[in-house]
Specification:
- The complex is a heterodimer of chains A (286) and B (124).
- Chain A is an alpha/beta fold and 286 residues long.
- Chain A contains ten helices and 13 strands.
- Chain A has a six-stranded mixed beta sheet, with helices on both faces. In chain A, strands 11-12-10-13 form a four-stranded antiparallel beta sheet.
- In chain A, a hairpin with a 2-residue loop joins strand 1 and strand 2 (15-26).
- In chain A, helix 4 runs antiparallel to helix 5 (130-144).
- Chain B has five helices and three strands.
- Chain B has a three-stranded antiparallel beta sheet with strand order 1-3-2, with helices on one face.
- In chain B, strand 2 and strand 3 (71-74) form a beta hairpin.
- In chain B, helix 2 packs across helix 3 (48-60).
- The radius of gyration of chain B is 18 Å and the shape is elongated.
- The chains are: A alpha/beta (286), B mainly alpha (124).
- Chain A: Keywords: ATP-binding, Nucleotide-binding.
- Chain A: It comes from Gracilibacillus pellucidus.
């Protein structure tokens, strides 16, 4: 599957949720979609699923626009953090409706997952706890076997143990049925090892799209004696720095340092990098 | 293989090093089958592509070899290759940082060598 957006825009009245957003995603990969609140992630994912039309620009999936186009949207399963299902239905109904909508639906798998998450067939959606509601979304997403499966913060209310179960299931499902999986999350530390690629959005635009490996090799954390660090990084573009008691730590992105003798060289986690790249500094004027 | 992953090192490298350590310690010997990409991915909750990258690192160094359709196996002289490589890295990875810390805390060379000799005699 190939997702292509060119100068994509989406405005709600005069506010742009997405602006000049250009991105290509393809292949059978697990991709992390990251961004601060309000970065435009959900708007982008909902446009992928054909929920509404772009205000401007192009968005195509295998060359076709998803909006109002069942031939495209039957291949896309979007699980959101809420409002996935009508409250009037029961668990059983949701699974039956999903089976009709998604051509690759795996009935046996859905049944197995329903038992893993201990959902009762006859339970009404209205009476599900937040965690169990999320579990139902996860069941639908995984069982859809949709060539593009998208999870937008799919685990609100789900405890750490069930979240870990979800990661196991996601990998299992991906290995059995390789496809393009997009996972949007704020719990980066928990899932960063699952990603092959990462997309970071900021203020409706693309900030970065890269493989996790490349991102890891592209940055460097140096720490040690402040003077020594300052001398080594003089004139370089520093992504983040902090110092304390004569010691200093700097994070370099896309910079080359040849000599690192006498200082500590390490790597940041994806979550730390994300924070360094997107954080608003709090300026306090004493 | 129950070692945990560390955060400050690329995962694929850690996967490769874990297999290497098993080979050096004799847990894995020539012609033993190593876990598949999917097994690594599942065990460590990592992307299968990452696991594959680690395994390919070992294939490239001829530490393991691929039997098409069957799996990955430890090669005949895997242990030699790993030992050779690790010995070459030993100075940079262990001796140099140790000497740096020793000089920082003003340890004498005599004290250091004495410890090393003692430990070696005690069979460590």
């Amino acid at each position: 599957m190939e997702i292509k957006t060119t100068n994509l825009q989406k405005a709600y009245r005069k506010n742009y949720a997405i602006q000049d957003f250009t991105l290509d995603l393809e292949g059978e990969k697990i991709i992390g979609l990251l961004g601060k609140n309000g970065a435009g992630k959900t708007t982008f994912m909902r446009m992928l699923a054909g929920h509404f039309q772009p205000t401007n620009g192009q968005l195509t999936i295998n060359g076709q626009t998803p909006f109002n186009h069942y031939d495209v949207t039957k291949n896309i399963c979007l699980v959101m953090e809420s409002n996935n299902f009508n409250n009037k239905f029961r668990v059983k109904d949701i699974l039956e409706i999903s089976a009709k909508f998604y051509p690759n639906w795996d009935h046996e798998y859905a049944e197995r997952l329903r038992q893993v998450f201990r959902l009762k067939e006859k339970q009404k959606i209205k009476t599900l706890s937040k965690g169990m509601y999320s579990a139902l979304g996860i069941i639908v997403g995984l069982s859809s076997h949709a060539p593009i499966t998208i999870f937008d913060e799919p685990y609100i209310g789900l405890d750490a143990s069930f979240r870990s179960t979800f990661y196991d299931l996601l990998l299992e499902s991906y290995q059995k049925n390789p496809r393009l999986i997009i996972l949007s999350t704020h719990l980066i530390d928990e899932v960063s090892n699952l990603f092959e690629e990462v997309v970071i959005m900021q203020e409706g635009k693309l900030l970065l799209h890269d493989t996790v490996d490349h991102l890891a090799s592209k940055h460097l954390v140096l720490s040690g004696n402040k003077e020594k660090i300052d001398q080594l990084t003089n004139g370089l573009d520093i992504l983040h720095q902090s110092s304390m008691l004569g010691q200093k730590t700097v994070v370099l992105y896309d910079e080359l340092v040849e000599e690192t003798d006498g200082v500590d060289v390490s790597k940041s986690t994806l979550q730390e990098l994300f924070v360094y790249l997107t954080k608003e500094e709090v300026n306090t004027h004493a | 293989m129950t070692e945990r992953l560390q955060e400050d090192k690329p995962i694929f490298q850690q996967i490769a090093e874990m297999v290497e350590t098993n080979i050096v310690e004799g847990e894995l010997v020539a012609n033993d089958k190593i876990p598949s990409t999917n097994e690594f991915a599942k065990h460590y909750q990592i992307n299968p592509a990452t696991a594959a990258k680690g395994i390919n690192l070992l294939v490239d160094q001829e530490i393991i070899f691929k039997k098409r359709g069957i799996g990955m196996f430890v090669s005949e002289n895997a242990k030699e290759i790993v030992l050779h490589k690790r010995k070459e890295r030993f100075y940079d990875q262990y001796v140099k940082p140790m000497l740096q810390e020793a000089s920082r805390i003003e340890l004498t060379t005599e004290q250091l060598t004495e410890w090393i000799k003692e430990d070696y005699q005690n069979g460590n």
